[in-house]
Specification:
heterodimer, A: alpha/beta, Rossmann fold, 7-stranded mixed sheet, 5-stranded parallel sheet, B: alpha/beta
Amino acid sequence: MEKPFILHMLTTAKNLSPFDVNMALDAGWVTALPYINVEPSEVQGLVQDAIFSRSTKNLKKTGIFIGGRDTKQAMDMLKTAKRSMVPPFEVSVFADPSGAFTTAAGMVAAVEHELITKFNTTLEGKNILALGGTGPVGQVAAVIAAQAGANVRIIGRQLEKAQNVADLCNNEFGDGKIAITAGADADKSEYIKTADVVFATGAAGIELLSAELVAIASQLKVAADVNAVPPAGIAGVDAFHNGTPIEGSPSGALGIGALAIGNIKYQAQNLLLKSMLNAEKPIFLHFEHAFSVARDYIKTKA
Amino acid sequence: MEKRSILHMLDPMPNNSPFDVNMALDAGFDVLMPYSNVKLDSVYGLTQDAIFSRGPAGVKRTGLFIGGRDLGLAMDMLNASRQAMVPPFEISVFTDPSGAFTTAAALVACVEKELKTRHGKELKDCKALVFGGTGPVGIATGVIASLAGAKTALVDHLSSDTAEDVAKAYNRRFAATLTGACARSDAEKVELLKDADIVFCTAKAGIQVLSAAVLKDTTRLKVAGDVNAVPPLGIEGIKLNDLGEPLLHAVSAPGAVGVGALAVGNVKYRLQHTMLRMMLETDHPLYLDFRAAFDKAREIV
């Protein structure tokens, strides 16, 4: 009898996200089992229970998903899970807390695509403002863009918090190899003058970039907004925009809205979940892999 | 269309064990449903919700699994679910908290077999020590060995009071004849081992319970079994796959042999798989606990 594909889904929250459950089952996992309120200290025990109860052949049909809300915690849990493997007893693990890794990957890949196709340039050396960038999606988008060579500034309402988040991104997620800076929301009218790209990843329903600021953004090329709930996070960018010119932009900037980003996010998450299904060697997936598949997806679609 | 088989997995802990999940799906259950943080007084209601919703044919495709970490609670839950059955609306129930019942059953069955083949002895002729005897696997091992007739002592590494309390509690519950003991040092271990025929090693993973120095002084030891698969192993000189290999360091105990953790684990795995299959294949409901596990483990070895 063929054994089923089993995905063990761990979350530190009190429920899994139904989004991730649907995605996992649609990607081909036959069974997805929830483990809720998981403490990071419990990860090793859960992983070892999972790996020691199937033959190495059937472990190829076994996977672990790490959800939750906190990016740092999810990355730590991913590391713990990887260290808990006892080769040849090992399985693939994919971390995507709050869908932030795949959402951020989708956004940055979409922005990069517009830069390449419409402006004949890349993320390398671009000035990026991550507005509302202290949350999970903002943090990870900042890291992905910085790793691609952009100068990223995380803007928050409180400078101190933005600075802490930038430090966390540089040290924990960027391995000390990137240098994201921080800025206060009050100063964004200065920063916007030299910005090439804007990411808006604030809470739903908050306008982070007004029409007045769009009007003075003289070198803005692409602005992306993950918020699907009106009012838009960036004035003039709605959820359906997909490389659409932003009204009132003096530099002819293009907008990318939540649905376009969501589509790439969906594809990236689906591809990563599928890649775990029959991986010959166990794979450990996070935002870097999400960005890689998001880029590939956009290229093949274009 | 034949109804899908459903296993309702009740657990007093916040989560099920991924081990049991893998085992249940690989045994052929189509759908698993986890119920976490389950309290004893909810088991009756949950059981009746499970039996009254599928019809007499559907109940044959329905099972209940009880996990957790506490053996007594698991047995209470098994009894509560059994009392909730309303024939012909009844389903099979299997309890294996922390995998302790199947691990212990496999361990005792392996040791019993070596005792018979290498020494021509039965459990009832022997005196057994269970190191790590106050943990789930240790208690289950002790109860099974005691009910099979061995004079069995649960050994705690800190306190004889703890060991005696546990022994008394489980004697009351299962009419076993366990005693308690304590071994804090090598000297105390040597003393205990003087008249021991059997050693079950069920201490925490990565803890060496019996060193070469302790083993050297044993004279009556016949079989030692270990469930610790993480180095250092529970018994110095034993190998993971040993199944009746001589115990290197027990130089004064003629014919003493060991059973390693993977040898036990292999039987445990087949045992749990078999018991889950039994739930799917049976015509009448089964109530499976450590006793059923030991009966089946004896067949497997």
